[in-house]
Amino acid sequence: MTRRVLITGGASGIGLGLARRFAAEGDRVALCDADADAVARMGDALRGAIAAVADVTDEAQMAAFLDRVESEWGGVDVVCANAGTGGPAGRIEDLDYADWQACIGVNLNGAFLTCRWAARLMRAQESGCIILTSSTSGQWGHPYRSPYASAKWGLVGLTKTLAMELGPAGVRVNAVCPGAVEGERMDRVVAMEAAASGRPEADVREQYVRGVSMRTWVTVDDLADTFLFLASPAASKMSGQIIAVDGHTETNAP
User: Taking every annotated instance into account, which residue ranges of this chain make up the domain Ketoreductase (predicted)?
Assistant: First the structure.
């Protein structure tokens, strides 16, 4: 059965991997991203996909994207509220309020706008699956990254609550908590945390590996495997679950 899959932040990083994997399964894909160049590349790569430039913190832009999807598809089967940003790094007393708001805006408010729309459609059709991208920082906390950790903990609360609200309508809601994911984004995060803590980048990178039982980083494909499972009939009785894909985080302490 061909599914209708919507992915926010779907033109880069984890979202890009999800879009490619769902499309490879034969599913119809709609994605949005704030990066216009990345969206153009995805539109060329995934023929037949809906690919739109939209900032998940902008209610008008999201309404335009979501209205288009609803108009063309008439419903949605899988929603991946994936858009996120690493936010600033530093001691809380040194952080700027605007940077805090921007991080909360992308990670948590963007998920709200996406899930609000999905809930309305899925409740009416009495089926559907919502998967939110949280983080192991939303399970453990993360020194020097209080805005990011707070937003990701917020997504855990949103997941649990929506699973309770939508379960009677046959809608499942789960969250995936990635650990340190290989790629350009984590390269930037490592550099930012090194600057904030005054440590060499090599030490920060080693901390991520040392703090995981399996002593490894996560790949985008590792995460896509879990998203595809959660969206499948094999996970038909899984809802309200917070699933870490991280090699087992032992600590995020510096």
Answer: 3-170
